[in-house]
């Protein structure tokens, strides 16, 4: 076994609100996992040593809500083909890693591109975060993600971004199809949304029975389930159905906050997605979508803030791929979580152990503890004092102990 020691740093392990000063840690070069850590003088003998010059070290970010490969078709004027989505996904993944994202969960990818890339990765490696992919989401006809892709001449019949369902049996079939393909997460569209042109955010789309069926089927196959849920009733149905996480949660009620705490349901707010649309969206998207966000953005922050302060389990997701919201800018969500009422530690924990627990990978990711993968960032400033420090453009990014950027 060969080892590398990283010395002379301030280490945020990720399990409590403090730094380990004058710290060091060692990494097994073969497995990429942490062997030991401590402070003061390191007694262990190692083959390689890296002096981090008193900089700040924290676990890599885990983004629990992403859409790799999203393409602004109106900007590029190309059909939304699988080749284009795949090329864009590989670009997104590399840039996301550069931005400090070392693991992610897919929450919808056209043509199941995230699933397909994950399936071939062992034999055809590429740079980017580890992945728990979802592929096609589940939506009702006319719902939030009923979206035709490409053109018939390119795709031999126009495919859809989603499984379009009309019953619990349809939902069960959709989950099984995603399981067969290799998906690890199921995305449900419980309510209307901002970007869809035919609904409002409080439109309740999937039924309680349909979502219960999805959860039962997915959990029987060790898959996680998340629900796009913005309106009050749709959020309630998703929580009662037993999803692992509520995505967005614009109008989460006090009743459902209590139920989420009791059940251990996570909230992945994606505040940055709302912020970008409200601040920069005028004239850049349909007025229908822009006005919807402006109408609801204050309530979005207020309800998320109430859930955070009540102690709901928190994950970090950004809706990466949406308007002015690339995967590489994931760290911006930390700032928005703090703006909504989280402490710096709560925000950082959401981007580490919180997301890792939601994805059920916390035995190997999410904090810099012995036995876990050495996925970490090296920063010039202390993120526990200022979460903006994580947005540093030239930060060092290590994955499995190997420097990537």
UniProtKB/TrEMBL annotation:
Coiled coil: none annotated. The keyword Hydrolase applies. The keyword Ligase does not apply. PANTHER family: ALPHA-D-RIBOSE 1-METHYLPHOSPHONATE 5-TRIPHOSPHATE DIPHOSPHATASE. Residues 56-393 form the Amidohydrolase-related domain. GO terms for molecular function: hydrolase activity, acting on carbon-nitrogen (but not peptide) bonds. This is Amidohydrolase. Pfam families: Amidohydro_1. Keywords: Hydrolase.
